[in-house]
Amino acid sequence: xxxxxxxxxxxxxxxxxxxxxxxxxxxxxxxxxxxxxxxxxxxxxxxxxxxxxxxxxxxxxxxxxxxxxxxxxxxxxxxxxxxxxxxxxxxxxxxxxxxxxxx
Length: 103
What we know:
About 75% of the residues lie in helices and about 0% in strands. It is an all-alpha fold. Helix 3 (about 40-55) packs across helix 5. It is globular and about 40 Å long.
């Protein structure tokens, strides 16, 4: 979609409500992940998950913008599409770097 269309979608309240539920769903999954040998990655992902679960509304706009661009989302995107987009942007939103992944 064009940036103008993306901007209109990002302001759609019904779409934002769906994004909020998607990021809560993703945060719940991330919070339940077992620890790995990538401690920095785990810590950053887990910290974001806890923050989203404690105050999802404060993360809606940030995730909405990133998810629209990453997932080529539209108003007709399925919940599974939204969840896939949330998962796709999670590490970036958490601040995970390539250095973290290489530890």
